[in-house]
Design brief:
The chain has 435 residues and is an all-alpha fold. The protein is built from 17 helices and no strands.
């Protein structure tokens, strides 16, 4: 007798995506709400629709899903956006996350979570400061009135934030938590090495695939090339014991940036076209793709991301135990409140203090509000908490707190933004940046 588990699983995932999108468009709410609720209901009450043991095959699911989750957002970042907002994205993705984890870990001295070591606090906040690209995109895509600049900051942060959180967790927090001690100098050096090597590998992989894409000119081939690039970069990064996620993000963004530069060159007037060494090195006269095909590739990559997110949500559904969540309700609420406050304070740099650094432009109160509540947690937080060894005595606490924060962030943040854009902000898209 044949097993049709993979086919049934695919039918379930695609059906959930289709009906969630259709219902979300009908009742005007973010589809991620329905995806999360639907995943739980199906996993809990319709086991036949999920015939694969998601928890038992979690490692395989991670490797399959991670490139798809990050690829869409990485493809959406344009070269001109990176050039314009590079320092702002760096602040959001690296400095703000590092400071947030540090501030969160300082709660150790207040003994907020009884029994946890300082290394455990670092791990817990690294896990719960990671935002989710798919959840954020699902919520914000339904709203008008968000300027392009704000969207760039949100997308850039959701990518870089995750890479920083992963490095902080795997190379600082987890070793510290499991061993009970850490060499601060070695940990810092190791984190910097991982950053540098991951970015270097990503640039090389990005250039290789950028040049390969000049050999063909159809959108299906280009889409598959990006998919292959994402998986190859992630696997190579992990095999080299650096950050596969940062390698993946760098590779996709680099390929996309070089393609954008080629398109910009061809769109220039003839008198502005000049050959340079870098343009010659890129063979800029041979374009890897077009803007129209890039839009198709981005849309398809976004759909792949939704499919991957649903698979992760099924794993989350397996983790949901209401008795355990209720038992740790105070810890969940404290973590949610603290991470929200930390995020609000870190985003205040853009709202009120941006003028102190010319390269980081202020966005005003409205921009601060949107940035603060666009910090939904999701797939990556679930992935990281599953990476904690099973014999760690506080793993149940970590899983309960993370599960609770993911659910609260999606529904509370998402509902806050939905209510604001539905009932308070009626005008069309406006420029949020204050010059």
């Amino acid at each position: 007798m044949h097993s049709f588990a993979p086919e049934i699983m695919l039918i379930t995932i695609l059906s959930l995506v289709i009906f969630s999108d259709a219902l979300a468009n009908k009742i005007k709410i973010p589809s991620v709400f329905l995806l999360l609720i639907g995943s739980y209901l199906i996993y809990t009450y319709f086991k036949a629709a999920v015939p694969i043991d998601m928890a038992a095959h979690f490692d395989t699911i991670i490797i399959f899903c991670i490139p798809l989750i990050f690829m869409g957002d990485a493809l959406h970042l344009g070269f001109s956006d990176i050039k314009k907002h590079g320092w702002s994205i760096f602040y959001l993705a690296v400095i703000a996350v590092a400071l947030s984890i540090t501030v969160g870990a300082s709660l150790y001295y207040l003994d907020v979570f009884e029994g946890l070591t300082l290394g455990a606090y670092v791990s817990l906040f690294a896990i719960n400061m990671a935002t989710d690209a798919v959840s954020v995109q699902s919520v914000l895509s339904h709203f008008k009135g968000i300027s392009h600049d704000i969207k760039v900051l949100i997308e850039g942060e959701s990518l870089g934030n995750d890479a920083t959180a992963v490095i902080a967790f795997f190379f600082i927090g987890l070793p510290w938590m499991m061993s009970g001690q850490i060499d601060a100098l070695h940990a810092t050096t190791e984190a910097l090495r991982v950053f540098a090597v991951s970015i270097g590998m990503g640039l090389v992989i990005g250039y290789v695939f950028y040049m390969l894409m000049k050999l063909f000119s159809d959108r299906r081939g280009e889409l598959f090339a990006f998919v292959i690039e994402g998986y190859a970069a992630y696997v190579l990064g992990e095999e080299m014991h650096v950050s596969g996620i940062l390698t993946l993000i760098t590779a996709i963004i680099a390929t996309k940036a070089w393609i954008d530069m080629d398109i910009m060159v061809l769109e220039e007037t003839e008198e502005k076209k000049r050959k340079s060494f870098m343009r010659t090195l890129r063979m800029s006269s041979v374009v890897a793709t077009t803007r129209e095909r890039l839009e198709y590739i981005y849309e398809m990559a976004k759909e792949f991301g939704y499919i991957a997110a649903v698979m992760i949500f099924f794993v989350l559904a397996e983790m949901v135990d209401f008795k355990t969540l209720w038992h740790y309700r105070m810890e969940i609420l404290i973590m949610f409140a603290v991470t929200t406050l930390i995020r609000a304070l870190s985003m205040a740099k853009f709202a009120f203090f941006g003028k102190t650094i010319d390269s980081i432009k202020p966005v005003g109160f409205e921009g601060w509000f949107i940035l603060t509540f666009s910090g939904m947690k999701g797939a990556l937080s679930i992935i990281l908490v599953h990476m904690i060894p099973a014999d760690y005595e506080y793993k149940v606490l970590f899983e309960a707190v993370t599960t609770g924060v993911v659910i609260l962030s999606i529904f509370v943040y998402g509902t806050t933004l939905w209510a604001y854009f539905t009932f308070f902000k009626k005008e069309e898209e406006t420029k949020l940046f204050v010059h």
